[in-house]
Amino acid sequence: MKNYKLILFLLMLSTCVFSQNKSNDTLNVNAEEPFDYKKYYDCDFGEGNVLIVIKKGKEFTDLKDLRKSGKGFAIKMEAIYSMEFTDGKRYESSIVKSITQDSLSITNFFNENSAKLAGKPFEIITYPLSSLKYIRFIDDRMLSLYSRKNIRKNFDLIVKKMDHAKMCPAVIDFNDRNGVTKVCHFYLTSQGYDLLYESDGRVYYLEGRVEWK
Predict the structure, then answer these.
(1) What's the pTM?
(2) Which among 108, 150, 199, 207 has the fewest CB atoms less than 10 Å away?
């Protein structure tokens, strides 16, 4: 019996991501070579903007308090969030690429492979922050239970410059799949962050035995 389980992600025709000038995020690794993160994905944890989504009437102090108090959550570059905008478009597996004081840039699919499977061009889309309408959270993915946050009605958006502004993806060896290496992006759920990866254009939740580099 296989030691991993793949759960197909949602609605791949609705979204996707920027793969840092690589045509394919699935790579085979020579185990004798020293690990080089930038060989698979170009990302650092350096300074940049973080979007703070905080309940109206609450004050932001720091990220730790934001999580513990339940006041809200943070949106970081290179991570994935289920977002819907005022134009009616909903994105389930798009990666946040840029945050400015008044805008948010995301990919329309997880990567080029996902866009190709959907028959769409791979693009980066920029929205004004004021157009962010809902953010959805998975409560129980096995039962397809979700909760939805009404951003315009119940939350304020604050852009903060921080030292560690990105959630760089994990580069992971799948030990039970002949050591194939995947770039796995973080995805925010009600329980915290899950990891998502792409295979043959489809996006899956990560489960099972892996080696995290």
Answers:
(1) 0.80
(2) 150
CA distance 101 to 35: 36
Residue among 123, 124, 91 at smallest CA distance from 203: 91
Give 3-state DSSP helix, strand, coil % of the chain, rounded to 5: 15, 45, 45
Collapsed DSSP state (helix, strand, coil) of residue 42:
coil
- Give backbone dihedrals phi and psi of 57, rounded to 5 degrees, phi first: 90, -5
Distance of alpha carbon 88 from its chain centroid, rounded? 20
Comparing C-alpha atoms, which of 134, 97, 111 is closest to residue 15? 111
Residues in the chain: 213
Identity of residue 157: L
Yes or no: say if 111 and 198 are a contact pair by the CB < 8 Å rule: yes
In the numeric block, which tokens belong to residue 42? 């170009």
DSSP 8-class letter at 109? S
For 181, residues 6+ apart whose C-beta sits below 8 A from its C-beta are 26, 27, 28, 29, 40, 171, 172, 173, 174, 213
How many CB atoms are located within 10 Å of the residue 119 CB?
7
CB atoms under 10 Å from CB of 120, counted, come to 15
Per residue in 141-166, pLDDT (tens digit) is: 555 567 899 999 999 999 999 999 99
In which band, very low, low, confident or very high, does the pLDDT at 180 lie, cut at 50, 70 and 90? Answer: confident
Q: What is the pLDDT of residues 113-129, one digit of tens each?
A: 999 999 999 999 999 99
